[in-house]
Amino acid sequence: MAMIMGLTCGYDATAMAGALLLVTDHFALTTTQQGSLYAAPAAGWIVGALLGSRLVNTLGRRTALLGLTLLYIAATFLAVTSGNLVWLDSSRFVQGTAIGIAIVATPIFIAESASTRARGRIAVLYQVATSFGCAMGYICSYFLTGSEQWRLMLAIPGALALASAVTLIRLPETDRWRQLREERGAGSTVGSPRPMGILRTMLSSRYRTLTFFVVTLGFFVQATGINAMVFFSPRIFQHMGYVDTFGLLVLPGFVQLAGAVAALACALTIDRFGRRPALLTGTALMGLGHALMVLAFATGSPEVVGFLGLIVFTIGFNSGFGALVWIFAAEGFPDHLRGAGASVMLLTNLTTNLFIAQFFLDLLNAAGGTLTYLILLAITTLAWLFVHFLAPETKGRSLDEVQSYWESGRNWPATGDTPASRT
Which phi and psi angles does 239 have, rounded to 5°? Predict the structure, then answer.
C-alpha cells in the first residue's frame, strides 16, 4: 500500500511538469499562470492537511485513505476534461486536497501498522516509490509529448489511485485507532477535540518542544527547494541551456531515478545506521548540490555541472529529509495528537510550498540562476544546523519511548518509564 500511494503522489507531482510544455501553448499561459497550475494543488494540499487530522481520527486511518483515493480519481477525471485554465486549476486544487490528506494519513497508517523494527524501513520505501513516481511522470511525458497527449499524462495518476483503493480494501484498520475509539466510546466514531483545544494542548509545556521542532522541520523541507526542482525541472533545464525534449523531460527523469536509488539505499541501511546520520549526510549533499548549481550558473556553462548539481541535491533530499522527515511527527505525538501533529507540520510545509510553486519561476527569471541558488544554499545551511542541534536519534525506540523523550524535555526515559507504563 505504501509503495502504491508513493507512486501516486510522485507521479502527481511531475505529471504537470511534462504537460506544462504543451498546456502553456494550448491555453496561451503567462509565467504567473504557469505557476498557478502548481499553486492550485499546493493550496489544496494545505486544505487537505487541515482536514487530515480530523478525518484520520473520526473515520479511521484506513477509511480516510480509501476516501481520498476516490476523491483523487474524481478530480483526475475533471482535470483530463478541462476546457480552460480555471477548470484545470480547480481540478488540480481538488487533487491537491486529496494528496494533502494522504500526506497526513499515510505516515500515521505506516507508523501504527508496522513493527518498531520495520517502521523506518517501510516509511523510507514510501519515499522510494514517490521518487520512482516522479521519474515515471517525466518519462511517460517524454513518450506522449510527440502526440501532444497532455490529457493522458494527467490521467495516469488516476489509474494509480484506483490501484491504491483496491489495495486498501483488503487491509485492516490499525489497532491503535481501534483502541482510541474504544477509549472514547465503543460503537461510536472517534471524535476530534476542538481545533483551539488541540492547539492549546500542542503549545502546552508537555508538547511545545516537539511542536516547534516539527513545524520548523516542515518549513525547511520545502524552503530548501525540493518541489521547485520537481515542479519546474524542465524550465530549470531550459535555463541551463537544454532545448530538446530529451533534455527537458528524460534528464529530469534520470535525476528522480537517482533520488529513488538513494532512497532505496537509505531504506536498506536506516535501521542499521539510524535517522540522524542519514539526515545530516543528506542535508549536506543538498547543500553541495546547490553549491554546484551556483557554480554552474556563475561560470556561464551550466549544462554538465548543473545536471550534476540537481542529481546531488535530489540524492541528498531523498536519503535524508524526503525519507525521514515525516517519521518525527508520526513517532513523537501520542495517539490522540498524531494526526494533529502531522497536520501542523504539513501546514507550515505546504504554506512554504505554495509560495515556491507560485513564485519560483518568477524569481528564477528575474534574479537568474546564480542568486536563486545562493538563496537556497543559505537556507539549506540553516537546515543542516537545525538538524545537527535538535534532531534526536529514534532508531530502535518504541512509539511510547519517543513520546516520553519529547514530553520530558528531550530526555530519554529510563527502562520501563514510558507513557504506556504510567497509565
Answer: -65, -25
Whole-angstrom distance, CA of residue 9 vs CA of residue 151: 18
Alpha carbon distances (Å) from 220 to 99, 227, 329, 348, 354: 20, 12, 14, 9, 14
- List the helix and strand counts (H, then E) for the chain: 19, 0
Cα distance between residue 328 and residue 220, in whole Å: 14
Determine the Cα–Cα distance for residues 412 and 187; give it in Å rounded to an integer.
Answer: 37
The domain ranges of the chain are 2-391
- Under CATH, domain 2-391 is a member of which superfamily? MFS general substrate transporter like domains (1.20.1250.20)
Average pLDDT of the residues of the chain: 85
Q: What is the pTM of this model?
A: 0.77
- The dihedral built from the CA positions of residue 67, 356, 229 and 394, taken in this order, carries a sign that is negative
In angstroms, the CA 367 to CA 317 distance is: 24
Q: What does the pLDDT look like over 123-172, one tens digit per residue?
A: 777 778 888 898 988 898 888 888 888 899 999 999 999 998 998 888 88
